Amino acid sequence: MDSYKLISDIERNHILALTKKGLRIDGRGFKDYRDITIETGYIPKAEGSSKITLGNTMIVAGVKVSIGTPYSDTPDSGVITVNAELSPMASPDYEPGPPDENSVEVARVVDRGIRHSNIVDKDKLVIVPGEKVFVIFLDLYVLSYDGNLYDAGEIAAVKALMNTKLPKLPPGFAESKSEWVPPVKEDLEWIPLEISDYPVSITVAKIGDALVVDPNANEERILDSRLSITIDAKNEICSMQKGGSGSFTFEDISNAIDMAQELAPKIQRQLKESK
After folding, report:
1. pTM given for the model
2. Which residues contact 63 (CB under 8 A, 6 or more apart)?
3. Whole-angstrom Cα distance, residue 241 to residue 111?
4. For 178-206, what is the mean pLDDT?
5. pLDDT tens across 221-266, in order?
6. Going from the N-terminus, what domains does the chain have, and what CATH number goes with each?
7. Own/partner pairs for 245-253, CB < 8 Å, 24+ apart?
8. What single string gives the DSSP state of each residue in the chain?
9. How far apart are CA 114 and CA 120, in angstroms?
10. Could you give the angle at the alpha carbon of 83 between the alpha carbons of 190 and 164, nearest 5°?
């Protein structure tokens, strides 16, 4: 731990010195994202999937569709559930086993953006009110970590949902009492999932007095605090989550929101235009 702290102190002083000059450790400006690549249909057996790279961070998203019962407090609504898995091969800091607080936080940030943007009309996932609904399982697999899992995860999740198809149920299924048996894909007609929004998370890190977007792994190690702001297609805020032990001033938050609303439309255009 002492050697880690020494390295961290050196990195912190170097990165802080750069930010005071308006620079970053990888040469980007404060409002510059790393290159984003988007690929869909990455998992052939899934109902929807994507692979996203953000710099050297890589996430694969997979969607599985099932039929189950709705939650008791929302009997007329389908279900979307998000899970994140941080693979040990992505970083030496990740270990096999049950989800830790980091994977839970990534899943929570992504889930909030999806739910509060209403990207999917969950009422249209209902088969029999109070009894049968489509359940969409969205799993995020981090294959390579170099910072900013929140924004990369949101992009991967949204693109996977854009790639998702639902089975067209056979006549009389809604009235039948039979249990759902997952069909062979070729046995049913599949219908694209209707998407009504394109939420994008913009994470702003505070390092010293500077605000920078899309922090890489070294910047995440020494940041004071971060704010992940999810922006919908109307360029409005639909969710926010703070991380880190430091604080933001009111001016910091206002500036972070301005940065998010400036940058989100560019990423949304890439989401829409990517194949």
Report:
1. 0.92
2. 46, 47, 48, 49, 136, 137, 138, 139, 160, 161, 163, 164
3. 12
4. 82
5. 999 999 999 999 999 999 999 999 999 999 999 999 999 999 999 9
6. 22-273 (3.30.230.70)
7. 246/206, 248/206, 252/206, 252/211, 253/227
8. -HHHHHHHHHHHHHHHHHHHTT--TTS--TTPPPPEEEEE--STTSSEEEEEEETTEEEEEEEEEEEEPPPTT-TTS-EEEEEEEE-TTT-TT--SSS--HHHHHHHHHHHHHHHHHT-S-GGGGEEETTTEEEEEEEEEEEEE-SS-HHHHHHHHHHHHHHT-EEE-PPTTTTT--PPP-PPPGGGS-EEEPP-----EEEEEEEETTEEEES--HHHHHH-SEEEEEEE-TTS-EEEEEEESSS---HHHHHHHHHHHHHHHHHHHHHHHH--
9. 8
10. 15
How many C-alpha atoms does 165 have within 13 Å on its Cβ side? Answer: 16
* Tokens of residue 129, six digits: 């009110």
Q: At what angle do helices 149-162 and 101-117 cross, to 10 degrees?
A: 50
Length of the chain: 275
Q: For residues 117 and 98, what is the distance between their CA atoms, to the nearest angstrom?
A: 29
